[in-house]
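stuck on this one:
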Amino acid sequence: MKSIFLIGFMGAGKTTVGKSLAEKLRFELIDTDHSIEIEQGKAISEIFEVDGESAFRDLEVQQLKKLRNSENSVISTGGGIILRSENCKILKETFSIYLKADFENIFKRIKEDKTRPLLLTDDPYSTAKNLFQSRQDTYESFKYHITTDFKNPSEISDEIISLYNLHAQN
């Protein structure tokens, strides 16, 4: 079966939902950020610090190209993967689901997380809100959306499986 790609802003639930979904489908879970860290032998924050964001985005493109035709996997992507148009093109050719959440709920989840290099600013709230707003139209351009607010990972996984089954029938 074709893989399922999870996209959305940081803190939307991609990793948590990905675990639940992979378990239910008996698929492998692949986290693109984690895969990049393993291949590079350093944390995302270190890649940002040493090599810069652009270098990290290049690594995301490479990772997505490797995974585009994968089977039987749930692929949890980084929140900024949609910043490169070539990634959006690839993701729109796959079965991708935008995990959508209200910004206030997202910020509650991520505000204490010091592993997110883009939020290591004097005003993480404003930084995150600006990033969220700047990416929203791109996320919204994807065919499938599931709202994650006030749902548990199992409920969200069930919704994704229903959408996946409908998609497979078409």
